[in-house]
């Protein structure tokens, strides 16, 4: 093997592999794909994301977006979104999508139910028992939130 070929082979095997795009080699950026590959995103070729940029404009010109029932209307806000502290919105959304209610929410529901029971209670003994359970739940909520503040999660 000539020395220059051996040197090229050695350099090619010892360097980290890089995907390069080169319009001079006749390769395009996979025009059949809708989204750019990570290699095309790193590449500085000016036509790399051309199709990605054209698709929304073309859909708008053709009227495809106007046919959607929600076109021009604000998105529906999820129930309780504005009352949820901003620190909890993303974690609660993830748990909600997974079908798992967070323990804090369960405590808030218990507190609301106990308050309704307290308002509807007929006797003093029943009110005292419900008030004691309500104070326990409120104390648990306060401790949980204080722990979150101390750990920096709130």
Task: Produce the secondary structure layout.
Layout: H1 3-14, H2 38-42, H3 50-62, H4 86-98, H5 103-120, H6 124-151
Helix pairs in contact: 5-6
User: Main sheet?
Assistant: none
Number of strands: 0
Report the order of strands and helices.
Answer: HHHHHH
Helix content: 55-70%
Shape: elongated
Our measurement of the CA-to-CA distance between the termini, rounded to an integer number of angstroms, reads: 66 Å
Low-pLDDT sequence parts: 29-36
Number of helices: 6
Radius of gyration: 30 Å
- For this entry, what is the oligomeric state of its chains? single chain
Structural class, please? mainly alpha
Strand content: under 5%
Structure in words:
InterPro entries: DnaJ_homolog_subfam-C_membr-28. The protein is built from 6 helices and no strands. It is an all-alpha fold and 154 residues long. Among the domains are: 32 residues, no CATH class; 66 residues, no CATH class. Helix 5 packs antiparallel against helix 6. The N and C termini lie far apart (66 Å).
Q: Which features would summarize this protein structure in a list?
A:
154 residues; mainly alpha; elongated
Briefly say what this structure is.
Residues 1-82 are annotated as: Disordered. The chain is an all-alpha fold and 154 residues long.
């Amino acid at each position: 093997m000539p020395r220059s070929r051996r040197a090229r082979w050695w350099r090619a095997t010892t360097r980290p592999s890089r995907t390069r795009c080169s319009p001079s080699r006749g390769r395009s950026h996979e025009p059949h794909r809708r989204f750019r590959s990570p290699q095309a995103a790193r590449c500085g070729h000016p036509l790399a994301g051309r199709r990605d940029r054209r698709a929304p404009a073309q859909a708008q010109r053709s009227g495809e977006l106007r046919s959607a029932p929600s076109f021009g209307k604000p998105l529906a806000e999820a129930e309780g979104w504005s009352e949820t502290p901003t620190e909890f919105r993303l974690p609660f959304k993830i748990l909600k999508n997974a079908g798992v209610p967070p323990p804090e929410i369960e405590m808030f529901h218990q507190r609301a139910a106990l308050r309704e029971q307290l308002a509807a209670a007929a006797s003093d003994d029943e009110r005292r028992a419900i008030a004691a359970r309500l104070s326990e739940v409120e104390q648990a909520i306060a401790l949980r939130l204080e722990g979150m503040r101390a750990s920096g999660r709130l």
